[in-house]
Amino acid sequence: MLLSYFSDSKLEAGCDEAGRGCLAGPVVAAAVILPRDYKHAELNDSKQLPRKKREAIRLEIEKEAIAWAVSFVDNYEIDKVNILNASYLAMNRAVDQLKSVPELLLIDGNRYKPHNDIPFECIIKGDGKYYSIAAASILAKTYRDEYMCKIAEQHPEYDWHSNMGYPTTAHRDAIRVHGLTDFHRRSFRQLPEQLELFEH
């Protein structure tokens, strides 16, 4: 069973991101404030749940949360500021969009770069420990997957509808054959060997 809250009295927002290790597409972050007494029998780290279950839980979270927000940082911005800073940026923007101002942020992972005075706690594997972080992981993952499936229609050869932009063999094979799209992250090492890639 996950924990409902970290502090006894503060209004907490759980924060998580999805897509950090992908070769293509945005990094997406979510921030979620849940009621203090929130419980859910199946809510867990999004990676532990099948797709249909994630999508069903997402609808419940959006209905039950005190506030929630999702933010996208695209591949161009990732290339400009690097993936770590882009992850912080996505989380910061998600927090900024919340209609209630949290008094404490629970960040999944071991690092965070704040841009305001809201106190925060970094919690390693937090998406498997706290409901609010697990909820943020579900929102970030489902919104990103939805986006990748949409752009996969424009570029079916990269198999994004199943690999979501991660560096699978099929994705890398497609890069070898077709080169890079406008959605690929140019600052990432797209192929294990250093090849000259011809851009479309």
- How are the strands of the biggest sheet laid out side by side? 3-2-1-4-5
Rg (C-alpha, Å):
17 Å
Number of DSSP strands?
5
CATH topology: Nucleotidyltransferase, domain 5
CATH secondary-structure class: Alpha Beta
**What is the helix/strand order?**
EEHEHHEEHHH
Q: How many individual helices?
A: 6
How would you sum up the major sheet? 5 strands, mixed
- By CATH, the architecture is named 2-Layer Sandwich
Average pLDDT over all residues: 93
Measured by DSSP, the beta-strand proportion falls in: 15-25%
Coarse structural class = alpha/beta
CATH H level: which superfamily? Ribonuclease H-like superfamily/Ribonuclease H
Termini Cα gap = 49 Å
Instruction: Tell the overall outline.
Output: globular
The count of domains is 1
The helicity comes to 25-40%
Low-pLDDT runs:
none
